[in-house]
Write a structure and sequence with these properties.
Length: 119
């Protein structure tokens, strides 16, 4: 399988993963997969859920089998409506690096003496 695609540093095929946004909250991974199968073979669908509530956040990532299928899906579905909502379909970008803010040992310089120095 590695000889069919160009892979990025994380091992994902370049150009086949799509960001799909502005989806209705009632949509399921199966709904999205069956819709995108009209454009070609779907390798996977990953709906993004809210950590706190477990509800669908209204966007997902769809991975197509080939770059041609991904390009066709963008052309077919970007701007088209699903339950009266215009979908946004773009090539997925790699996640941006996160700054370690907050949490245990990640809150920055919060320890020690915070009083102004005495002179």
């Amino acid at each position: 399988m590695f000889d069919r695609h160009v892979y990025n540093s994380t091992g994902d095929p370049v150009g086949t993963k799509l960001y799909v946004g502005n989806l209705p909250f009632s949509a399921t991974e199966n709904d999205i997969a069956s819709l995108f199968e009209k454009a070609g073979k779907v390798a996977s669908v990953r709906a993004v859920m809210d950590r706190e509530t477990g509800r669908f956040k209204g966007f997902c990532f769809v991975e197509m089998e080939s770059k041609e299928d991904a390009d066709k899906a963008i052309e077919m579905f970007n701007g088209s409506e699903l339950n009266n909502r215009p979908m946004v379909v773009n090539p997925a970008r790699p996640p941006e690096p996160r700054n370690n803010r907050g949490g245990f040992n990640g809150g920055g310089n919060r320890g020690g003496d915070r009083r102004p120095p005495r002179y």
